Amino acid sequence: MSIDEKIQSILADIANRGSVLIAFSGGVDSSVLAALAFRALGRKAIAVTADSQTLAPGELDCAKAVAKEIGISHKTIYYDELGEPGFAENPVDRCYHCKKGLIRELKKIAAEYDIKTIIEGTNISDLKNHRPGHRAVVEEEIYNPFVEFKVTKEEIREIARKLGLSVADKPSMACLSSRFPYGQTITADALRRVGVAENYLRDRGFNVVRVRDHAGLARIEITPDKMMHLMEMRDAVFVEFKRLGFLYVTLDLIGFRSGSMDEVLWHKKEKIPL
């Protein structure tokens, strides 16, 4: 199917459902899904964003702005992942526990608005990676149009451009819990620290950045073309990160890659000694 054919298929599928609730983060995937749902159903589509401690600073405001840009009805709820059993201990299936609890809260909102279908923006490219949260999505019968019609991440960005969405080229922004090695306890203070550290770097021109927290050691991931710039300001970065509570500050020489904390899983699977 061409991209235009996939768009038309998704629009028709959503329209046939009568009403939908979109799990909406304001990233490119959920924004495209919300825009298509609004085109298909108008006011019978609502977007719901979970405000939580794992949401990166500024992302809630971004979600509100994109929802306004689309024109879709938007609701914000508070969700406490850290209070969800099995989450803060940070097991390898952490995202399963988070998604399971979030879906529970989304179902309450759907029932309030008499909406039968909850949809979310997992795409076919996502399923190549470690995605324990998708198991909860399947178990709870949440609908994935992008999986159903085999829409890739790059196709989603192309659709976003076709729709004129401001987030078409927005870098992926995983929740802040992905900044910690599996087995390292996640706390509210640690989440705040990595969020502030990443914002500090973004404000200085590092648009694609992750600050991974290895028990107080900050491992900075940026794109290779930005590494010399970081080295030129390393003293200021070190002072700021020390102020935030990091003991050591390092630069990852490989650079940014999504899901780098999952690399330990592939090492174990391939039986390569760490």
What would you call the structural class?
alpha/beta
Radius of gyration, in Å, reads: 19 Å
Distance between the termini: 43 Å
- Unreliable spans are 269-274
Gross geometry: globular
Supply the number of helical segments.
11
Question: What percentage of the residues does DSSP assign to strands (E)?
Answer: 5-15%
Compact summary:
The chain has 274 residues and is of the alpha/beta class. The chain has 11 helices and 7 strands.
Features of this protein?
alpha/beta; 274 residues; four-stranded parallel β-sheet; 45% helix
What do you see in this structure?
The chain is an alpha/beta fold and 274 residues long. It contains eleven helices and seven strands. 45% of the residues lie in helices and 13% in strands. It has a four-stranded parallel beta sheet, with helices on both faces. A three-stranded mixed beta sheet has the order 5-6-7, with helices on one face. β2, α3 and β3 form a beta-alpha-beta unit. α1 crosses α2. The protein is globular and about 55 Å long.
Topology overview:
Blueprint: H1 3-16, E1 20-23, H2 28-41, E2 45-51, H3 59-70, E3 73-78, H4 94-112, E4 117-119, H5 132-139, H6 145-148, H7 153-163, H8 188-202, E5 209-214, E6 217-222, H9 227-232, H10 234-244, E7 248-251, H11 263-270
Parallel strand pairs: 1-2, 1-4, 2-3, 6-7
Antiparallel strand pairs: 5-6
